[in-house]
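=== RUN LOG ===
request id: a7f3
mode: sequence -> structure
chains: 1
length: 72
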Amino acid sequence: MTRLASEPSLTPRQTEVVRLAVLGLTAKETARRLGISKNTVDEHLREARHRVGAATKSRLIGWAVASGIVPF
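=== RESULT ===
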């Protein structure tokens, strides 16, 4: 199992995209909301996963909630 980074190390835009993913928005919905392409959203999510060591989007979302970058 991959160990996830404990400190947030995301750019402000990556953090924004991850927060919207946590809220359940699709990449297409996120793209519309932020005025960027779906491919750009996908790239932000890929890079965020890489930075925190999350193998999947679900793990990234779990990390985001556990690390407190998304208020719950």
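=== NOTES ===
The mean pLDDT is 90.
The first helix runs from residue 12 to 22.
=== END ===
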